[in-house]
Specification:
Blueprint (H helix, E strand, L loop, with lengths): L4 E5 L9 H9 L5 E4 L6 H11 L6 E6 L5 H7 L5 E5 L8 H8 L8 E2 L6 H14 L3 H30 L2
Parallel strand pairs: 1-2, 1-3, 3-4, 4-5
Helix pairs in contact: 1-5, 2-3, 5-6
Bound molecules: 5-O-phosphono-beta-D-ribofuranose.
5-O-phosphono-beta-D-ribofuranose binds next to loops.
């Protein structure tokens, strides 16, 4: 099956922090195309990937990078597909550098950017799935089911907490 979502990362050193992205996509039945491509170290290959992405069937591009994180912006400059940036929480600046480099795009070339660390990599997957869900009813239903499951779990936790507080 042709991948609808690609996950690009600037270095294989990013991958351990992107496993939740891949796992979440798979839970929704999406097998992503996953590549290491760098705006700085493989600029030509990165641009070629972006330029040919739509005709290869891709619909959403996720771009993770740390430090001087230009990958999402450069990819967005070479395609009109939606691009979601995932700033990586690298030392020594902890990801603030990557966040600003990814989110502060000039007008005309948008990059939707998720949070640094924490739920960011997972939310990137969910946001990509929501984009697919805007025209794919089956995906929209899966996303609604996911929200309902999450709601039920939180309410159960709340109930357990109330019980613990009452007995303490
Ligand atoms: C960025 O440089 C990558 O996305 C990575 O987060 C960072 C460091 O890369 P390595 O030196 O670990 O390959 O382009």
């Amino acid at each position: 099956m042709t991948a609808r979502i690609a996950l690009l990362m600037g270095s294989d050193s990013d991958f351990p922090r992107l496993e939740s992205t891949v796992q979440t996509l798979r839970e929704f039945g999406e097998e992503p195309e996953v590549r290491v491509l760098s705006a700085h170290r493989t600029p030509e290959e990165a641009c070629e990937f972006a330029s040919s992405a739509r005709k290869r069937g891709l619909q959403v591009l996720l771009c993770a990078a740390g430090g001087a994180a230009h990958l999402a912006g450069v990819i967005a400059a070479h395609t009109s597909l939606p691009v979601i940036g995932i700033p990586m929480d690298n030392p020594p600046l902890g990801g603030l550098d990557a966040l600003l480099a990814t989110v502060q795009m000039p007008g005309g070339i948008p990059v939707g950017t998720v949070g640094v660390g924490g739920g960011g990599p997972k939310n990137a997957a969910l946001l990509a799935l929501r984009i697919l869900g805007s025209s794919d009813k089956e995906m929209a239903q899966k996303l609604d089911d996911f929200r309902e499951t999450q709601r039920t779990r939180v309410l159960e936790k709340d109930s357990q907490l109330q019980g613990r507080l009452q007995s303490s």
